[in-house]
Amino acid sequence: EAHLANHYSTTHNELVFGKLLVTDENEISFVNSATSVACEVTDPNIFDRRQLLRDFKEMFERIWPPVSDEFVHELLRQSVEERATRHHEKPKRLICVGKDERVFGAVVLLPKRGGAVKGLLLRNTNDRETVRRMLDGALEMVTHLGGRKLYFLHPIVDAETILLLKSHGFQAEGLLLAPYVPGQDVAVMSKFV
User: Fold this and answer.
1) Which of 99, 48, 100 lies closest to 76 in space, CA to CA?
2) What is the mean pLDDT of the chain?
3) Listed residue (94, 29, 18, 13) closest to 61, CA to CA
4) What would you report as the CA-atom Rg of the chain, rounded to the nearest whole angstrom?
5) Rounded to two decimals, what is the model's pTM?
């Protein structure tokens, strides 16, 4: 399904093979359009925690299936409150863009072994400059953490985000068939830092 270049080190790639074991796939609806809100990269700690949780869950559910409050809370806790610093400690980080006490976009960074960093891109804005700022912040954080490569697994039904990633220099490395949710295929988009 994918050939991930230099994924585990500068000399080791990863090949991804997959096989669907069931054929009764769920109906995956199209992604709701985002609004055009211009935002700045903002420290996630300045937002009211309850509002951050609500905004984060809303953005998550815009492209992924419904998630529990516990999942969202734990992901935010690990990426905002825990402050591991070295890549091998897998320090999760959160890059936010916001305006008027609301979060309109976020990238959760999840370091993997060998220097690759998986990103989870969530957004409720389609303002290209805002998305660019968010991606620039994520790439800067990957470099700061000692990572070599930032990659996203993003649902192909959200073509708008795939195009935004491509316009920011991310390359398509593969297509994974329903890796998390039946019927929801994802593109692997990556960029070396």
Assistant:
1) 48
2) 86
3) 29
4) 16
5) 0.82
Number of residues written out for the chain: 193
Query: What pLDDT score does 13 carry?
Result: 79
H or E element in which residue 35 lies:
none
Q: Are strands 2-9 and 12-16 parallel, antiparallel or unpaired?
A: antiparallel
| Residue 32: per-residue pLDDT | 61
DSSP helix/strand/coil, 66: coil
- DSSP conformational letter for 114: G
- Min mean pLDDT across 9-13, 35-39, 68-72, 111-115 is at 9-13
Helix axes 128-144, 159-167, angle to 10 degrees: 60
How far, in Å, CA of 61 to CA of 31, rounded? 10
Residue 57 CB-half CA count within 13 A: 15
Secondary-structure breakdown of the chain: helix, strand, coil percentages, each rounded to the nearest 5: 35, 35, 30
Distance of alpha carbon 186 from alpha carbon 158, whole angstroms: 9
